[in-house]
Design brief:
DNA-binding, elongated, mainly alpha, 3% strand
DNA sequence: CTCTGCGCACGTC
DNA sequence: GACGTGCGCAGAG
């Protein structure tokens, strides 16, 4: 996670550059931050990288060069493409990525707007790498096994920021990133992949990826290491997150065919905005003893155990599972489970973010406060609730159990 | 030399 | 026509 200070500096710098009609490229950003705040270019670069991962800043290829956008301020152009790619419900359409960043109206949400922003010129930089295409495919495939690929890597990748070290970011010296990018790239990129009209192609053109921050080496280095052979870039879930039309379809589909046996429809509490129709089925399926508004630790445990029961094919009445089982189960939660959990908890929109970031049970246990508040790009209010009432509780429960078990 | 402001052209909606 | 973007230039420090 980037430091708030740097976050401010960088966003401020981008805004400043924009306001004076200068391209907010890496070079200028680093220089201005250094001049104004004395921060080293490398550090700025690294922080910028983190911001990109957090989708607070968008990196785009515009008119042949790299530009950075303050995600919170990208408003322009609606969703022609959204409409084309995936028809959404009016609600979603109204606020496709409210799920995301809370900063001033959904910074992240803007990602997709951003993506749709300039189909002609503005191209996600990441698209330059093959990996991106893999990501695209991954995203597509997520319909079937989106939760399957849940590797902690996703979180790690994000957390990588928090932890530090993305020295790989540093390599992107201010000028190199920009200058290394020949304007011809986007052309070849487009033509080389898919027909412009195909959804994947659209996504490819429109998705802004954070992974691309420092060209290839960054996209492949740590994250890849974190993920393993087939997990590779998919764990860098942002790409899907930046393509809401994809993501939503994916999530919705998946939610509806949840492997655990209960769909989101079945699980979403009445207080949740979405999938309300299924709330009755939900109670039949799991007989949840809680109201989402009063989601307490008890509820958490209940859910965990219920989840457990469902997964183990047990009957609903057998919620007398041991906490030990609970602990194990948390570890075994898939991305879908986690998403379902938060959907049930009354955070359907934020659940999408967890899904997008491929947070599974293990990842959930590793999440820190900052990860939830900023790494998921969800609004601060829900994020705080989610962390305090759920993540923290789950973690505490888990680790307490673990201690007990020892 | 660096930074800043802005006219202008271009592209999208 | 409105708007976002950024090149390229001129002026200020």
């Amino acid at each position: 996670m980037s430091e708030p200070m740097y976050r401010e500096w960088i966003l401020e710098t981008i805004d400043s550059l924009r306001s004076r009609k200068a391209r907010p490229d890496l070079d200028r950003i680093c220089r201005m931050v250094r001049r104004r705040h004395g921060s080293e270019a490398e550090r700025t670069c690294a922080e910028l990288d983190k911001l990109i991962r957090e989708q607070t800043v968008l990196k785009v290829n515009y008119k042949g060069s790299v530009s950075y956008r303050n995600a919170a301020k990208v408003h322009r152009r609606s969703r022609k493409r959204d409409d084309r790619a995936t028809r959404r419900s009016p609600t979603e359409d109204a606020d496709p990525w409210d799920v995301s960043n809370g900063d001033s109206g959904g910074a992240l949400g803007l990602v997709d707007r951003e993506e749709t922003a300039d189909p002609e010129d503005e191209v996600p930089v990441s698209m330059e790498t093959d990996s991106t295409i893999e990501e695209e495919e991954e995203v597509e495939g997520a319909d079937e096994d989106g939760h399957e690929g849940s590797s902690p890597g996703g979180v790690d990748a994000v957390k990588g920021g928090s932890g530090d070290t993305h020295p790989q970011s540093a390599p992107c010296s201010p000028s190199s990133t920009v200058s290394d990018r020949p304007p011809t790239i986007k052309t070849s990129r487009r033509s080389s992949s898919l027909p412009p009209s195909s959804p994947p192609a659209l996504r490819q053109k429109e998705c802004v990826s954070d992974t691309a921050f420092c060209p290839a080496e960054d996209g492949l280095s740590e994250m890849e290491r974190n993920t393993g052979p087939e997990g590779n870039l998919k764990t860098v879930a942002q790409p899907s997150g930046t393509c809401p039309w994809v993501q939503e379809r994916t999530i919705e589909d998946e939610m509806k065919t949840e492997d655990s046996g209960f769909t989101s429809d079945q699980l979403v509490p009445d207080c949740a905005d979405e999938s309300r129709e299924g709330s009755e089925r939900k109670s039949q399926a799991l007989s949840f003893p809680f109201e989402c508004a009063q989601y307490t630790e008890m509820n958490v445990a209940s859910y965990v155990m219920a989840q457990d029961n469902v997964k183990n094919g047990q009957k609903n009445g057998q919620v007398s599972a041991k906490m030990d089982t609970t602990r194990q189960n948390l570890l075994f939660w898939s991305v879908a489970d986690v998403a379902s959990y938060f959907t049930i908890a009354g955070f359907p929109e934020q659940a999408l973010a967890f899904r997008t970031q491929e947070i599974d049970g293990k990842s959930l246990l590793l999440m820190q406060r900052s990860d939830v508040l900023t790494g998921l790009s969800i609004r601060l209010g829900p994020a705080l609730k989610i962390y305090e009432r759920h993540v923290k509780v789950l973690q505490r429960t888990h680790f307490l159990d673990e201690e007990d078990g020892l």
